[in-house]
Amino acid sequence: MSNRKWLDHRTIWRWHFYAGLFCVPFIIALALSGSLYLFKPQVEAWIDRPYDNLTLTGPAADANAQALAALAAVPGGSLKTYILSEHPTDAVRVQIRDGQGALWRVYVHPQTLSILHKVREEDRLMEQVKTFHGELLMGDRGSWLVELAACWGIVMVASGLYLWWPRDRSGWAGVIYPRLSAGGRMFWRDLHGVVGIWVSFLALFLLLTGLPWAGVWGGAFKMVREATGTAAVKQDWTTSRSAERAAHDVHEHADTAPMDHGSLSMDDMMVGAATLSDVVTRIAPLNLPAPVHINLPNKPGAPWAVRSLTANRPQRVSIDLDGTTGDLLRREEFADRHVIDRVVGVGIAAHEGQLFGAFNQLLGVLAALGLVLLSVSGVVMWWKRRPSGALGAPPPLRIKGSSAVMGLILLGFALFLPLLGLSVIIVALIDLALLRQWRKGRQWLGLRMT
């Protein structure tokens, strides 16, 4: 009877080591920025508190007058979106596109029409946190790095679960709970392994639900949906921050398509039976989940697009109203969408901590803190065991597992995560072209000597 195993423990360990070596700085940055973004509603409410609960001495002005006041605050601008106030005493938020293409949020006193504040959308704190979390403030290059880190993060967590699986152990010490009285490397090893098992599934969920936003994975996912006829007319998420900006620009200049809305002059907006005030009057009693954006038609007579953009995506509602009569043309609930869009939407809402309230946020924070602790404990373990003059990778041994099984696992990861597969190919080429002839480099990296 052969003692040969399907998987080689040492090879999995080396995958785990190199994946962690690359991922750790990104994981810490993404965990901290992501945990802050979980509390976007609370943070934005705190920032906007000077502009809410205002004192009104009379009736509020109509929406047309409020929009005109906001438009005057951005010279050369065009009205894009009117955001319904959640409370009558809150400042009215209006989005204005300036002549250079920047989108401004203007806060208007609902009664006096005075301008209380204006800020570029991209300069708002949580938008900056979102940009950092998605692209590390480096544009598309940063977005690719984040996606690559997520791909290797999935490998790191999966390989860590395999390494954690108890083998010939008596009891659950060091497996389910750490031996806190142990000192040195055993303490850090227990802390790393035990925290890992408790947060691994949450971490995998966060990593996997983040993939639809990723440039390469999300783009490939969209292509597959188009090829299989399951693509949505308009996807409810973008694959990068640059794609999000490009989508806004396309919508701004679209000549047709009722789903794509841009901006219209106030004079044009007032023509016909359905003005902004009429739309607000019709939509306000529906009590759609906030924030509710009323997007102007892209040309006279085109439909008004009303979108509930609540972060709890299963509660979102989309409504189109006739541009002339104000009659309802279309209402789309979350349940009306394709099952793929619903699954992704639920995943995104949970990823952002908005699916089931404060407990969702708490789980997100626990996962983020667990990932930071895993990263720190992993670095400490490496630092304690690293040899002098070498990186400290687990020493290579001739594979003891099935090379076919190991190859299939790697192929499966590469097919599911294209950027991961590309990185493996690049590393293999570097190995063949450079490291084969650089003996000292191979020794330092812990690679097998040829």
Could you explain how this protein is built, in words?
Helices cover 51% and strands 10% of the residues. The protein has 450 residues and is an alpha+beta fold. It has an eight-stranded antiparallel sheet, with helices on one face. A hairpin with an 8-residue loop joins strand 5 (292-295) and strand 6 (304-308). Helix 1 (9-37) runs antiparallel to helix 4 (125-135) and helix 1 (9-37) packs across helix 5. The protein is elongated. 31% of the residues are buried.
CA distance, first residue to last residue:
32 Å
* C-alpha-based Rg, rounded: 27 Å
Helix content: 40-55%
The SSE order reads HHHEEEEHHHHHHHEEEEHHHHH
- Provide mean pLDDT, rounded: 86
Unreliable stretches: 250-264
Strand order of the largest sheet: 4-3-2-1-5-6-7-8
Measured by DSSP, the beta-strand proportion falls in 5-15%
Number of strands: 8
Number of helices: 15
Mass-distribution shape: elongated
Structural class: alpha+beta
Largest sheet: 8 strands, antiparallel
Protein traits:
450 residues, alpha+beta, 8-stranded antiparallel β-sheet, 51% helix, elongated
Structure described in brief:
With 450 residues, this protein is an alpha+beta fold.
Question: What order do the helices and strands come in, and which of them pair?
Answer:
Elements: H1 9-37, H2 40-47, H3 63-72, E1 78-83, E2 92-97, E3 103-108, E4 115-120, H4 125-135, H5 139-164, H6 184-209, H7 215-228, H8 241-253, H9 266-269, H10 276-283, E5 292-295, E6 304-308, E7 317-321, E8 328-333, H11 339-351, H12 357-385, H13 403-416, H14 418-433, H15 439-445
Antiparallel strand pairs: 1-2, 1-5, 2-3, 3-4, 5-6, 6-7, 7-8
Helix pairs in contact: 1-4, 1-5, 1-12, 5-6, 6-12, 13-14
